[in-house]
Every structure is written in structure tokens, then in C-alpha cells.
Request: fold
Amino acid sequence: MSRMLGQDAQIAAFREAALSDRLHHAWLLAGPEGVGKAGFAMAAATWLLASSAGPEFDLPGFDLPFGHRIANFIEQGSHPDLRVLMRLPRDKSDDLARSISIDQVRGLQSLFNTTPGFSPRRVVIIDAIDDLERPAANALLKNLEEPPAGTTFFLISHAPGRLLPTIRSRCRLLRFGGLSPREMTRVLQDKLPDEPSDEIEALVRVGEGAPGRALRFAGLEIAALDAAIDRLVEQGDPTNALRSSLAKQLGTKAVQARYEAFLERAPARIAAEAKRRSGAALATAIDLWAEARKIGESAVHLSLDQPTTVFELATMLARLAPATGSVKA
Reply:
């Protein structure tokens, strides 16, 4: 298993608890979305189940001997003592359900009512605990209050403050922060070995310390998209040429993913520019950001015309340019 960058302290804390027989039954993995909490949970679960099943090994972190049978079962999705709860796809749709249902949580009883298959341990990962509907959270609470023997829960949360206090109080908290630019670069180079350096640099900026977020934009030529956005902010668009070009490039269903990336990047660029301003210029930037975010969040859901939407957002970007008359009416 490859080394998990930026998580040394969290790995050490979990290993110490497990190896000293003080392993808490529930771990709340809290931090921004995309920083690697789910990866940590799966790696910790694999290491825990493998260590318990044997044969004994002594390797750093969550590393396992090559070809370990427990790791193979987990990779194939066939380990009987591991259960992962996530939002499920809706019927006849690629969209995910709004929440993790009470039926999914109740389904854990089949795991708890049987003897573990390979060792005394079982693991449940919930990704994310924020997605549990209220009845499901109440059902899970019963398991946390009276944990089944040998069961470890990993509860992934992007917003732990919103959880039921009774759930938080029954968990040991592990906090996760964003990765450094250097760590982000190493992760992305490992995941995307064929991407050019300028694209990796752009993805590092987009990710803001969260590899998962950066990888959502992989393959979308974010460096070129951000360069076009920067030109609008820095130079304006007195002839409409830049905006018309962007609207043409991003205005078809064939480039839907890149269009949706623009819907995120445009408000983000306005927000970044607002941080550099004060007085009336700051007020203008904040107003533009609020409008751009509203459009960006609703454009796909409302099926707004793509070229028109791109042109409108590009106009907001161009209005930030310093030169008088930088935007053609």
C-alpha cells in the first residue's frame, strides 16, 4: 500500500490505539471534503482486519505484506466482515440519493448477527455520516451506544458540527486538514502521471489542499481555462472576443464536464479577487460573486442555455478588470 501523504499523525494515533489494546469502537474522521478521509478509513480498516486475521507482520503505517489475502478480499469487495455505507444511486438514474437511508443502517444487523469470518473484528465505514437521514442517525446511535463486540466504526464527516451531539460524544475524533502544495503535487503526479506540469500546477491550485477535489477536474484542461479567466479579470473584454470565444468553446453538450468546471471556477476567481479589494471595489466584487455563485449553482439544474450562461459569467469576470471601458455593453 502506498504511503498516505499528510496523514502521518492520524495513522500514528490509530496504530497506537490498536496496538495498545485501547482501540475505541467509533472514530469520527473530520475535515474538508476531498482531503483523504475515505482513503484513510479504507486503509485503516484493511490494516486492522489483516492484523487481526494474521499472520503477524511488522510494517510501517498501514502497509501490508504484498498479496495479503485480506487485502485481496477487500479489493474484490468480498470481505464478509467489512461493510461500507454510502448514498445509493436512484432507480433508473446515475444520480445519488439525497441521504443514506434507515434501511441501509438496519441492514448492518445481518453483519452483527453473524460470527466474523476471518478474525474477531468487524469494520463499518459510513461515507459520509453527514448524509444520514435523521431516522438513520437515530438507528446508528443505538449501535454506537451498545457497540457489537469486536466492531470498529469509521464515521466520515465533512461538517462534524452538524452531527447529533450524542453521536459525536461516542466517537474519538481524528481531524484532517488540507495537504501542502508540495504534498498535493506528489499525490497528483502519482495519480496522473501523463498530465503536463502546468496542468498539475493548475490542479494543485484548484484542489486547495484537497486531492479529491483536484481529481474531479482532471482531464479538463484547467490550466487553459484558468488562463482565459485570468485574462478576463486582468484585461477585460472591450471587443467581446474573449467572451464569445469562451461561450463557443463551452457551449455544447460534448464539453459538459468542462462547462461545469467553468461554473465553479468563475465564482471562485471572483471570490479570490474580492479578497484583494477594499471599499467600493470590494462591494462590487462581493455583489458579482453572489450573482455568479447563484448562476453557477443553478445553471445545470435549471438547464440554462450554455453559451448564454458562459457569456454572462465571463461578463462578470471582465467587469473586475481595472481599465475603463474594459467591457463592451
Summary: The two ends are 57 Å apart (CA to CA). Residues 279-298 form the longest helix (20 residues). The chain has a mean pLDDT of 91.
